[in-house]
Amino acid sequence: MDHETRGCAGLAVAGAGAAGAVLAWAPHARVNVTGGFAGSHRDLSVLYVDLPLIALGGALLPLLAGTLALRLLGRPWAAALVAVAALGLGVWGLTSWWTPYQRPEFMG
């Protein structure tokens, strides 16, 4: 595997990781963007704080795991498998752990 192919594969893994993480994150953040009931719970900080962090983490996690596996194992198919597994575990951790803050519907 030459350097150009390795670089293109790294960019593809980073792009797929960022897109996958953002697509898994978006349904959780929908309530904060739309505002929920009567738009009273709108919190747009998820767009300028959480969105860049989710995209960056989704891009870097599989890229770093794949690069480390390629250096340690020396086999491109094993590195690709490790990168996909790292992306899957990262998205699973994101969806099971991260929940945006939501104020209670009715304060009485």
Notes on the structure:
- The structure is a single chain.
- The protein has 108 residues and is an all-alpha fold.
- The chain has helices spanning 3-34, 45-73, 76-97.
- The protein has 3 helices and no strands.
SSE blueprint:
Layout: H1 3-34, H2 45-73, H3 76-97
Helix pairs in contact: 1-2, 1-3, 2-3
Question: How does the helix and strand content classify structurally?
Answer: mainly alpha
Helix content: over 70%
How widely separated are the two ends? 64 Å
Put simply, the count of helices is 3
Order of helices and strands: HHH
Report the biggest beta sheet as strand number plus sense, adding barrel if it closes: none
Share of β-strand residues: under 5%
Rg calculated over all Cα atoms: 18 Å
Overall spatial form: elongated
* Average pLDDT score: 83
Low-confidence stretches: none
Total beta-strand segments: 0
What descriptors fit this protein?
108 residues; mainly alpha; 0% strand
Can I get a quick summary?
The chain is mainly alpha-helical.
